[in-house]
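User: I've been going back and forth on whether these two constructs are worth ordering. Before I decide, could you fold them both?

Assistant: Sure. I'll take them in the order you sent them. The first construct and its structure tokens:
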Amino acid sequence: MRICYTSDLHGSERHYRQLTDLVRAARPDLLILGGDLFPDGPPEDPAPAQVAFVRESFLPLARGWRRELPSLRVACILGNHDWAESERFLTGRPDEPVTLLAPGRSWKMGGVHFLGYPCSPPAPFWAKEFERLDQPGDPLPAEGGVVYTNGAPRRVSAAEHFLAHPTIQAELAALKPPAAPWIFVCHAPPHDTRLDRLPNLDAPIGSKAVRAFIERHKPLCALHGHVHESPTVTGAYADEVGGALCVNPGQDPQRLFAALFDTADPRGTLRHTVLGA
């Protein structure tokens, strides 16, 4: 099964246009989108604007991909810049061409199971609904951010938000990995790999909980995003964790970064649309 994977499009018209060109050229069986797919929205009330983008731009694009390639399937997770209102909008829409990979259940295509997880450790951005502390005992970040309550945005302190939710470690521990072969689609990259580096920091910023989950459960491969610059910083968009192939294609402001591979031989067929093999 031929897979095209990209992440962190942030509602960019340029990137979605380039993605349409890539889908036409590569003709994958499955397109997977790894979170941070939509624009943040305006500060005064961001979620309705993001949902409008999903309804008026994203889903019509996906319908167009399916019209050109009727056999194409599209699956996605959300990320820390996406809002739970968008998750609710995408959930339970069997007539739409996009499958939302939810943590509580796996999805199967072509003999392969897929499990998604959207949350990432605290980041210096305002949207907090898909952010969690990574592990028990981790320090709270200095700043809080914005969540939605009863359909309206609300500012929350770091303690109010992060202490009200389980850690990433706890949420992953509650997941039941599907039968092999399976692919983990997780917005946050694993800690201390070639996939979680920023140009202005010496320390890795990936999730230790995600790394431990991959090491323990050994998916066929794991697909990540979140840290756009990492492939440029490290010179690599793939790494090995516990014997599992992990991929973060990164993202570029001008050119779409994406990865292509076949599930029959992920390592042997993996290539990057810009960086090559």
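The second construct, handled the same way:
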Amino acid sequence: MNWIRLESPAYWIVAVVTFLGVAYWESMRPKRPLSVSTERRWGNHAVILVMSTVAVGLLYRTSPVLVAASFAGNRFGLLNKMWLPFAARFVLALLLLDFVKYLAHRFLHSVPVMWRMHQVHHSDPDFDVSTALRVHPLELIFTQGVYLGIIAILAPPLSAVVLAEALSGLQSFFGHANARLPGWIEGPLRTIFITPDMHRIHHSAEVAEQLANFGDSFPWWDRLLGTYVATPAAGQDGMVMGLKGSQDPGSLSLGFMLQQPFRPAPPEMSDNRPVGL
């Protein structure tokens, strides 16, 4: 799942470099062939990224790092207790912020109105680094608002928020990579971080697989809470991506992405229904 942030120019420089680095990796070691050229995918997904970023920036006029800095001196913050060692507060902050993203992602799949917005991310007929950019502005407004509120309540160490933001941003591009990792690397790595093979399962057209692997940076919440799936039923090469009824190139148009939450679901998508938490 993707969290757009309003940060310093340095953040965006790192984000662009990471995106291009993952894109190069995809071109050298692609996992699956794409049904639509990267030029069209990148262009339309970049436009919706800009729209989402502008909407969130205009509404909140702040960022997770700025909120963390503002609440650093809040003595009522749950993690702003001086009797708790800094190392403990730092680690707890990293874990809790990632867990919040896991829960918010499950919420997007579990509440019908939220699922309609989140369908935009899942209706990509392919899966590559640009899929990380494909998030409806309304979804970003919701997820960013939740995240900013949690940071205000927790008042976590500023350095922990900076690291959590960096990890989440890098992981978003890495986890959506249409790239092949050697098995001897992928297996051990997914015990610590979300790998592309793990997150790709979440983008399967099969509803049972969409309701798995919700993690943002760390895979532990899925394993602990029973939402972890190691291998898709059809295998990585045979798995069908996207949502039933929205698996043609037309789903890549900007108009489709912006209007999808408000359109009646086609009959083919009747099985793409959310379930309770």
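Notes on the second construct follow. Residues 9-269 form one domain. Residues 86-110 form the longest helix (25 residues).
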